[in-house]
User: Fold this.
Amino acid sequence: MKVPAAVEFESVRFGWTTDRVLLDVPSFRVGQGERLFLRGASGSGKSTLLSLITGVLQPQDGTIRLFGEDVTRLPTAARDRLRADRIGVIFQMFNLLPFLSLTGNVMLAGQFSARRRKQAEGGAEAEARRLLERLGLAGDMLKRPVRDLSVGQQQRVAVARALFGSPDLVIADEPTSALDTLARDRFISLLVDETTRTGATLIFVSHDPGLAGHFDRAVDMAEINTAHAQAEAL
Assistant:
């Protein structure tokens, strides 16, 4: 039985101008609950693809579906709501607020989503504490501002924020670039374990092909973005 799709692209094309196509994706599919490794060099279209998945950008042509819903037909406000409700993002630079505590940063994920606040186990603060403790951050540390943390600790806060309220899709955009090999592998294991526990779909983006073994499937941007493949061939 075929697993329902979390993400589906059909004949999607995007460019900042009509005469220069940056992304041309005939077909791309990620199954619900799948852990996908998406690799590609700088300029291959990874960031553009993620912005299309999250609804930050809209394609010039084609259809994008998230969990069966055609997001290309949604107005801006509805796309924003869907992103807040169903997608957790771990950014490369973490995007934490340095003056807020660990729990304060994690609870930010629920500020824009009543759905994720409602799904928080035992309330927003209890959910934030539970996630942070599972990621090895506990006790008096939770009250400290995140600017006092190490890079690895800040990264775990960013993971907890993305997982707050059990989003259906988690996107990790080059999150391990600042870590050494041991810390990187531990981080990926934590992320895979947490998304598996909640049943979330995971899209992990990196330029490092050596990470592919941690995931169910690996896809290269050159395989799905024919615009980049054609440019490379010239």
In short: The first strand starts at residue 5 and ends at 14. The mean pLDDT is 90. The two ends are 41 Å apart (CA to CA).
